[in-house]
Amino acid sequence: MENLDQLRSDVLQRVSESETLEALDGVRVQALGKKGEITGLMKTLGGLDPEARKAAGQALNVVKQEVADAIEQRKAVLEEAALEAKLAEERIDVSLPARPAHVGRMHPISQTMEELVAIFGEMGFSVAQGPHIEDDFHNFTALNIPPEHPARQEFDTFYMNEKEDGSRPVLRTHTSPVQIRTMQNAEPPIRIIAPGRTFRADHDATHSPMFHQIEGLVIDTETNMGHLKGTLIEFCRSYFGVDDLPVRFRPSFFPFTEPSAEVDIGCTREGGQLKIGAGDDWLEILGSGMVHPKVLEACGIDSTKYQGFAFGMGVERIAMLKYGIPDLRTFYESDLRWMKHYGFVPLEMPSMVRGL
Ligand code: PHE
Known about the structure:
Elements: H1 4-17, H2 21-32, H3 37-44, H4 50-89, H5 108-122, E1 126-127, E2 133-134, H6 136-139, H7 151-154, E3 170-171, H8 177-185, E4 190-199, E5 210-220, H9 225-240, E6 247-254, E7 257-268, E8 275-276, E9 281-291, H10 293-298, E10 307-314, H11 315-323, H12 336-342, H13 351-355
Parallel strand pairs: 1-4
Antiparallel strand pairs: 2-3, 4-5, 5-10, 6-7, 7-8, 7-9, 9-10
């Protein structure tokens, strides 16, 4: 017991020198733990005579209490310091300017597709889809383009390798095979549009080997040329946003429609600048016609009972016209500067983020 004072001051010093909560806990275990120094002294009390035991016991208890109090106090100090450090580290500098929010752009093709779907959706059309790799029947034969028909040459078709049965799949040259697939699978009335990718072996400033079309098909018992005209006039005016846009129907030929018409919209080309709207010039934008009875029959639809119209147009072309994009090839170059210029800010972005 003679070194109790020494032990007391040692332990108190160790407590006050503890710099972390872990170190402090180590000191506590060393002094007051099961095998601790003070605990060890407690165990020696049993060997003393009663008088000495009482005095030593009291002294030891005082020291024990003192050490415990000192540890508690030091603990409070260290906890406070840890909290301060954490707060300092996590402090937010509210005077910093906000980080710029980089909002991506929507490609003009996607934007145009959405506009087309929205316009025809309002008119009651639903969206149909078909495969990019087609068979001869859907891409040609069912559309009244039999083998050896000269129209096949016009398409610059990409042919795939021959299959075991001798047939050669093609990359669809137009979206018209979706007409066939729809009519094979649904009973009239039919009212669909089919936007999607199409492929032709052709590449220059106005042609790309992969491009997009949108097809339309309406089949019912009474559907006639007047409906075709009304639908397409309404579409042209709505898409280009010109209420009195002149729309002209010019006789044409497609194997799968009879009669067929190409559709032109009014424009001016003064000073080499193309402007869409009333003017003295015309611009061709789509092909259309009344679905040929042979096409209906090829799909198992009774052509004495049902009739209708179809149309198809190039999405790049009408996007270029509406948004003043001069070169078709730039659509596929993935140039971010081009995207920043011609791309669209997605509408569903919260305006707060756009504002920042
Ligand atoms: N499929 C035709 C083309 O690619 C367009 C078209 C579709 C014409 C439907 C008439 C009817 O040129």
